[in-house]
Write the structure tokens for this entry.
Amino acid sequence: MVDYLHKRKRIFLASGMVLCLAAMLLSIFPGVRPTVLERTLAFVVIPLQRGAQSSVAWVQGRFSAITDNARLLNENADLREENARLLFEIEQLILAGEENYTLTALLEMRQRFPELPTIGARVIAQNPGVLRSRFTIESGTRDGVYAQMPVLAGDAVKGVVRYAAHRHAEVITIFDSDFSVAVHSVRAEVSGIVRGDTQLARDGLVRMDFISDTANIMPGDLLVTSVYSLIFPPGLPVGTVVSVHPNPDGLTRHALIEPAAGTDRPQMVLVVAELPIAEDYQAQES
Amino acid sequence: MLRIFLLAMLLLANFIAQTTLWPELAILGVVPDTAVILIVSYGMLRGEIEGAIFGLAVGLVADIFTGVHVGTYALMGFVMGYVSGKPFKDYFKDNFFLPFFVVMVMMVLSQLLAYMVHIVFVGRLEFWFFVHAVALPTMVYTAALAIPLYSFLHYCNNKVEAYEEKRRAFFENK
């Protein structure tokens, strides 16, 4: 065959070129495509192309980490930087959210006791100790905070100012054994004294004493500050009765109270100012 | 028969590589035209008739799948195979540099032809832009692959010729 064509080179050359030119001219007309040939070739070529493309993609995937090393390093550095920035922003947002929460709570407290003159104070330190029953606020006599002023957290009694310096003050909480407040049961019309107890404080409880043996007090009763309290204004929630126990003398009983202000250290507290006894301290100190 | 089978495999492998592998290895947006290397190499190894037929087949496959106008690449392949086979019938086949230069020359011609085809069928294209953005990088990239591909084809051709010689001798002795 090849030998035959070698003898007729000119014819071969001419026919080849004419064939190609004819194909070119034919293909100018729309709709004229070698569909049978195309389909036959596609039957073989397409699966091979698909396989080759998959192989190339696989190889590229394997080596992309090497070829894109510099780009990946830069991208990694950028992402780390962005991550650090975003973490910082998230931290700021969390802090702002917490501050917003406490300020809202403080505002609600102020709105709940509009007749009470109050001073908002930030808790700046938890005083060391086993029970951690004392903390420091950043308001002092400079801001109108004096010893024996009631301290509220949320809408409940949290403690009392034990000592006030010029720029700060120390607060003893309801769990502290030095703390006591006259209380009154809203439902049972029973009065008593709530005070901190070192052992009960571990369980997040305080003790109510001087309950008459005949008093109709029971678990779930809400206790508020009594009109007999010299420090606290009447009607402030103190806690809820958890259990009632008889005393050895057989004449009185005591109750275990869960403080309404909770056991957590608050971030902001409200100091009730201008109470008679505090004014006495104020006069003494000045 | 073995030769036809091998050429078909070569044609297919080249087409698949040109449509899948080479685009992934593109440099400055250009891909090597290995079809030109194969056509030129085969034409130089086997003469103008076989070169032209192989060129026609390679071009036709490219035309059918990628060409807008069937016959363009086929004509280019046909002419290239014939021209590269005609003057180098009796040259020393182990000389790898001659195919390199012939590939370069054929690349220039094929790029010029591609430019003209573009002008005729697609539209105006600035010549110098085409030269420095397409033609020159493609030529350089293709030329870089000319010697290894020619070597491979030369090796395959030797093997097939040895097989054919043995087969011919077998039938003649019978």
Summary: DSSP finds six helices and twelve strands in chain A. The interface with chain B takes residues 2, 5-6, 9, 12-13, 16-17, 19-28, 33-34, 37-38, 41-42, 44-45, 48-49, 52-53, 56, 60 of chain A (CB under 8 Å). Residues 118-285 of chain A form a domain with the Thrombin, subunit H fold (CATH 2.40.10.350).
